[in-house]
Write a structure and sequence with these properties.
Length: about 260
């Protein structure tokens, strides 16, 4: 299991635990509407994955229905156009992140049988075959996670102390943070694995654009590890644009006291 996949599974499993008791809010605003569309698309996407696997076919994410469903789940442009997140955004942000993470794992594990060939071999083949799509999905996740993290902070601050300090909620928050850090590690490792240049640039820019959020949530040991991983990724990527982005990320991390 890849670090990125492990992080996605962890996030999916813990979202409900962390935000236990947060009331769901209906709204005509773009965020909730987009999240609702992503939730429905993820259900249809899972059905598409299952049917395609059962039919012994390969995924086609370049034409409908695969492409349409994928675009509704991983709609990065729509996320980027949203206003800054607030505490009340947390329910729909967490739902969207949950289904996006689950759909990402679905592509990674497509047609893999844990009882048959080694799972890791199937995962590696899927990563190679669907690299472009997985890169788009990772870019989306790296950009949605900061919004949820900021909304979660605002939500926690709004709670009475006794509710904020519930052991289950505190534990869940810590584990979701860990999942976020694993996702960052997975993205850096992916860049260092010499994917296509466009995909490396996409993810390097996402890391740079969001470093102010995730780096401040990392502890000192994690920041040291990130700096080492970023140096290795720069060596593996061998691309000036990627290099510029990762140098900027490293500089931002190193500046944290």
């Amino acid at each position: 299991m890849t670090k990125m996949e492990s992080a996605m599974r962890q996030i999916v499993a813990l979202l409900v635990l962390v935000f236990l008791g947060f009331p769901s809010q209906a709204s005509a605003q773009d965020g909730p509407r987009l999240s609702l569309a992503a939730v429905q698309a993820s259900k249809d996407f899972k059905a598409y994955l299952d049917k395609t696997a059962n039919d012994k076919n390969q995924l086609d994410l370049s034409s409908p229905p695969g492409s349409t469903l994928f675009a509704a789940i991983f709609d990065t442009k729509a996320v980027e156009a949203l206003p800054p997140p607030t505490g009340p955004d947390l329910p729909w942000l967490s739902e969207w992140l949950g289904v996006a993470a689950s759909s990402y794992v679905g592509i990674i594990n497509f047609s893999a049988d844990p009882r048959g060939e080694p799972l890791q071999k199937a995962v590696q083949e899927n990563v190679a075959r669907y690299e472009d799509n997985l890169s788009v999905a990772m870019d989306f996740l790296l950009r949605l996670m900061p919004r949820m993290a900021i909304a979660a902070d605002a939500f926690m601050e709004s709670l009475p102390e006794k509710d904020r300090n519930l052991p289950a909620r505190q534990q869940g928050m810590a584990q979701v943070r860990n999942g976020y850090m694993q996702t960052v590690t997975g993205a850096i490792t992916f860049i260092g694995g010499s994917p296509k240049a466009d995909n490396s640039r996409l993810l390097a820019k996402a890391l740079r654009d969001t470093v102010d959020v995730w780096s401040k949530r990392a502890n000192a040991e994690e920041r040291t590890q990130f700096l080492s991983q970023l140096a290795q990724a720069r060596t593996g990527a061998k691309d000036s644009t990627v290099d510029d982005h990762l140098i900027a990320v490293s500089t931002a991390i190193a500046a944290i006291q």
